[in-house]
Design goal:
The chain has about 270 residues and is an alpha/beta fold. It has a domain of about 180 residues: Phosphatidylinositol (PI) phosphodiesterase (TIM Barrel), CATH 3.20.20. Strands 1, 2, 3, 4, 5, 6, 7, 8 and 9 form a 9-stranded mixed β-sheet that branches. Helix 5 packs parallel to helix 7.
């Protein structure tokens, strides 16, 4: 049986407020079968009945929001260009599909605005801001403009939440679009500053909800986040059924998965 969202504490927004829990997010689409973060990957997820997408955005040199995880295009296209140093027209010309298979040859890196235009509030959006620096270089402002400029209007904002490892990015976005919930992501990755490896960014960024790495979720941490601090939390990346059941039993409001289509039947029960 699905539950309505748990009310958050005063001053926090509920992410995806109309959506019953638990939620299941397709992590970059279905990346084990289709090229990650592409329209093909999200279309495959949608064709299998998935209604929640997680994706990554970076700001190009000319101010467009490219949907891509890495700072370089090398891993997904075979051509090494720095996303933030490259104009959109040059990124759009790359083949982001053929490394995954000939069936995807010619698949391009998409723009966020095009994906939002295609699916709009038909799905839930977890938009991860890829910003690894403290300085404001316009990424959050570009995201705010993009979300407000779609043809879907306020209905889209209710279907979106913005997440990041960077609490300063969350704080900047929250100031621009206070009606959209923001969530802090963290892990024990050595590339993440030590001060942020235990979820401290939830206070620095005034996060509404939490996205911890799955390895960091246990009975004590789950109890503290959910019951003592009053946060909803969504572990990533969860790909096995037994693991998913364990997190849901610990009170997770949803999961982010590379195999979301395989986990969906368990979450629907």
């Amino acid at each position: 049986m699905k539950d309505r969202p748990t009310s958050t504490r005063p001053g926090r927004r509920t992410p995806w407020p109309a959506a019953p829990r638990p939620l299941l997010f397709a992590h970059r689409g279905l990346p084990l079968e289709a090229p990650e973060n592409t329209a093909a990957s999200f279309a495959l997820a949608r064709s299998r009945g998935l209604r929640a997408f997680e994706l990554d955005v970076r700001l190009t040199a000319d101010g467009r929001l490219a949907v891509i995880h890495d700072g370089s295009t090398a891993r997904t296209t075979g051509t090494d260009l720095g996303v933030e140093r490259t104009e959109w027209k040059d990124l759009a010309a790359l083949d982001a599909g053929s490394l995954k298979g000939e069936a995807f040859r010619g698949e391009s890196i998409p723009l966020l605005e095009d994906l939002l235009d295609r699916w709009g509030p038909e799905v839930l959006w977890d938009i991860e801001v890829k910003n690894g620096v403290a300085a404001d270089y316009g990424l959050e402002a570009a995201l705010a403009r993009t979300l407000r400029a779609t043809r879907w209007g306020p209905a889209l904002l209710d279907s979106c939440a913005v997440t990041s490892f960077n609490p300063l990015a969350l704080a900047r976005f929250r100031a621009l679009v206070p009606e959209v919930a923001v969530g802090i992501i963290w892990s024990r990755d050595p590339e993440l500053p030590f001060v942020l490896r235990h979820g401290e960014g939830r206070w620095l960024g005034r996060a509404d909800f939490l996205k911890p790495a799955a390895a960091l979720v246990g009975p004590r941490s789950a109890f503290r986040w959910r019951h003592l601090e009053g946060y909803e939390y969504f572990p990533w990346t969860v790909d096995e059924g037994e693991e998913a059941e364990r997190f849901l039993a610990l009170g997770a409001s949803g999961l982010v998965s590379n195999r979301a289509d395989r986990l969906a039947p368990a979450l629907a029960g």
